[in-house]
């Protein structure tokens, strides 16, 4: 259970980083 929560947290962090990268790209092009 604890390992699953840690894995989910890491996955959320990766998604957050990718979302930030996409936001930076859109703002730079806009």
Question: What is the topology?
Answer:
Blueprint: H1 2-29
Strand content is under 5%
Helix amount, in percent?
over 70%
The total beta strand count reads: 0
Structural class: mainly alpha
Terminal CA distance reads 43 Å
Radius of gyration: 13 Å
Largest sheet features: none
User: What integer is the average pLDDT?
Assistant: 84
- Elements, N to C (H/E): H
- What spatial form do the alpha-carbon principal axes imply? rod-shaped
Describe this structure in words.
With 30 residues, the protein is mainly alpha-helical. Helices cover 93% and strands 0% of the residues. It has 1 helix and no strands. The chain has one helix at 2-29. The mean pLDDT is 84.
Give a short synopsis of this structure.
By secondary structure, the chain is mainly α. It has 1 helix and no strands. The radius of gyration is 13 Å and the shape is rod-shaped.
List keywords for this structure.
single chain; 30 residues; mainly alpha; 93% helix; rod-shaped
């Amino acid at each position: 259970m604890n390992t699953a929560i840690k894995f989910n947290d890491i996955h959320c962090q990766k998604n957050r980083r990718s979302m930030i990268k996409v936001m930076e790209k859109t703002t730079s092009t806009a």
